[in-house]
Amino acid sequence: MMGEQPRSEPLFYYFRLEDQIPEHHVLKRLERYVDFSFVRERLKGAYSPLGRPSIDPEILLRLLLVGYLYGITSERRLMEEVRMHLAYRWFTRLGFEQAIPDHSTFSKNRHGRFRESGIFLEVFEEIVRRCMDAGLVEGQRVSVDGTVVRANASSQSGVERKQLAEVAQVSRTVREYLKEVAEQNPVAEDRPPAPGSVAAQIVSSTDPDAYWAGKGGPTVPSYLDHYLIDNASGVILGVEASRARRGQETLAARRLLQQVRERFGIHPESLGADTGYGSGEFLAWLLERQIQPHIPVIDRRHQTHRHYTRDAFHYDPSEDVYRCPQGQALRYHGKNRTVQGDIYRTTESQCRGCPVKKQCTRAPGRRLFVHWHEAARQKARDLVQSPEYARSRRERNKIEALFSELKLRLGLRRVRLRRLWNVAEQFYLAATAQNLKRLVKFLAQPQPPMAGCST
Fold this sequence. Notes:
Layout: H1 26-33, H2 38-42, H3 57-69, H4 75-84, H5 86-91, H6 104-117, H7 119-133, E1 141-150, E2 158-160, H8 164-167, H9 172-183, H10 198-201, E3 202-204, E4 211-213, E5 220-230, E6 236-243, H11 248-264, E7 270-272, H12 280-288, E8 292-294, E9 314-316, E10 321-323, E11 329-336, E12 341-345, H13 348-351, H14 357-360, E13 367-371, H15 374-383, H16 387-395, H17 397-408, H18 420-443
Parallel strand pairs: 1-7, 7-8
Antiparallel strand pairs: 1-5, 2-3, 4-5, 5-6, 9-10, 10-11, 11-12, 12-13
């Protein structure tokens, strides 16, 4: 006999939310292993002792983490999902008898207490410490990289820099940007864009902090999200948001390495990175700090295969000259500060009539460029053959997997907020969510029995 289920609404339901959530659910594990009460303690001074009680800041953090863990990038949609999803309600401690906060609550707190206190950075660092306390972080081998994330601005929003004052009359964002530029001294390490580049001439009127960048596609306003990770566990140790300028990679890597040393006491033995980090200046900086650079060197020595490379020239330190295969001296000619090196060259008369001139150069005389940090570059080349280098290169794929997770699962192909500080907060929360996944998975593993204990 076919059954029929009539639709009826009982007056009361007798059940606990917690009983409806599976034990292996990631939110159940987060509740079991991670205590977020430190957020309330940290923000205690930002609230007045008088007046109506506000929404618990720990609840706001839990709501935001749900959004990042499940790729819900819209706060309005996040509130709708929490209203309907039992696990989200349980984790955020919003029972059926409680009202769901309005989505505008996040914006008010973000521009007030959260921004002033830097709470998102503190939350990220606290979770890294929890990973270290659990024994998840090794800290000896690390990798660094950055990925381009599109800004919340259209490619049609670009205006010339000289027009910003005119745009500021109708754009509050541009007014704030121009005020900050006038009040703050430029950071010494933050190099200006190259003259004649798109970034030097065009600024987005929607988000003036964003810079034009493109990788395998159209050039659009973008930011760079930099990660420093522990190779053994894949835990993100450092995060930095920067404008998508050329040359920001090595500057961000320096800051991240310094931060993890100061805040976590981590001094790695090696750093893995791609060729974009292989400048002589950065390699020398790493070696000075006893960090082995497992990085391909930016090297143009062998680009001209038909001519002698620099390896064919012998340096004579007593005279400060290089001698070619025919014994002619290439004497010091000057510096090239742009590419950080010295230039040595012969005269035209020295090369005239040379029997191997066609193998050496097509110019009247031979010119040789020697990098100021050639010793560091050679040290990095020597490391290529070591087994540690090969291992580091294999493990560096973990950072690419994290960027894929960031964009595909967490939904950050494009940032939702504007201005650099807001973008940084999004990157901190995304990295926190990624670390939390790895932490609870590690803690949920069955612990091996202690030696000498019988089963």
